[in-house]
């Protein structure tokens, strides 16, 4: 008895097969390369401080494919974050990106939490010029620990990294997650859950 094996081979070109694919706001396709302009590749205003006059004391200025259409398919984006003294970027995660943050001005406490079952907090205080990495999908935060304003620039390895803030997702979902579920999850009374949900 003879055995015969056959196999198929698939090859993938990891590099782009075109120079760029500028997002066309009028369709789901790329803009015709002949119509592409320099403005499709640029963004102005990152030098302007964001308004930190909000309950969190922080302001995020994104530069994603929504601001620069040429980022489409390139897998990168960045954000400027301004922090008032003791301002925070609340615990959140990016479902589609790792983030690398650089402190431009000020002092920042940063940290992320590893996945279950350890849930280990890895944190550090950063100074001007320091860099820190938040791995994709892990809950992380930033807080200005100085008495002056702080500024950071973050690079993300996605044109649209997404952001899910933990408080908004858990207590501000539409429709609400059942108070029974949240009371059990957080081991608190339902009235406390309803009170928190009322803030969102």
TrEMBL record:
Signal peptide location: 1-17
**Which Pfam families does the record match to this protein?**
Cupin_1 (PF00190)
Q: Which domain of life is it from?
A: Eukaryota
* SMART domains in alphabetical order: Cupin_1
| Family listed | Belongs to the germin family.
Q: Which InterPro entries match?
A: Cupin_1 (IPR006045), Germin (IPR001929), Germin_Mn-BS (IPR019780), RmlC-like_jellyroll (IPR014710), RmlC_Cupin_sf (IPR011051)
Name a GO molecular-function annotation.
manganese ion binding
Please give the CDD domains that the UniProt record associates with this protein: cupin_OxOx
Check the record and name the SUPFAM superfamilies matching this protein. Answer: RmlC-like cupins (SSF51182)
Gene Ontology cellular-component terms listed: apoplast
**Residues that, per the record, bind Mn(2+):** 92, 94, 99, 140
Record keywords: Apoplast, Disulfide bond, Glycoprotein, Manganese, Metal-binding, Secreted, Signal
Q: Does the keyword Secreted apply?
A: yes
Please identify the protein, giving its name as recorded. Answer: Germin-like protein
Which amino acid positions bind oxalate, per UniProt? Answer: 94, 99
Q: Which cysteines are joined by disulfide bonds?
A: 21-30
The answer to whether keyword Glycoprotein applies is: yes
Q: Where in the cell is it found?
A: Secreted, Extracellular space, Apoplast
Q: Which residue range or ranges hold the Cupin type-1 domain? A: 44-194
| Function comment | May play a role in plant defense. Probably has no oxalate oxidase activity even if the active site is conserved.
Q: Which organism is it from?
A: Linum tenue
């Amino acid at each position: 008895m003879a055995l015969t094996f056959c196999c198929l081979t698939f090859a993938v070109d990891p590099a782009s097969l075109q120079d760029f694919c500028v997002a066309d706001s009028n369709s789901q396709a790329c803009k015709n390369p002949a119509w592409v302009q320099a403005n499709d590749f640029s963004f102005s205003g990152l030098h302007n401080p964001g308004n930190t006059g909000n309950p969190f004391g922080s302001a995020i200025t994104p530069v994603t494919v929504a601001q620069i259409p040429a980022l489409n398919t390139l897998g990168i984006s960045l954000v400027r974050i301004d922090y008032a003294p003791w301002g925070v970027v609340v615990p959140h995660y990016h479902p589609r990106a790792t983030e690398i943050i650089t402190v431009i001005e000020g002092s920042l406490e940063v940290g992320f939490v590893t996945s279950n079952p350890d849930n280990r907090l890895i944190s550090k205080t950063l100074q001007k010029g320091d860099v820190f990495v938040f791995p994709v999908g892990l809950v992380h935060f930033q807080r200005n620990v100085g008495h002056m304003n702080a500024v950071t620039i973050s690079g993300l390895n996605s044109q649209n990294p997404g952001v899910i803030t933990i408080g908004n997702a858990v207590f501000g979902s539409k429709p609400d997650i059942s108070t029974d579920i949240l009371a059990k999850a957080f081991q608190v009374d339902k009235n406390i859950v309803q009170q928190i949900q009322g803030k969102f």
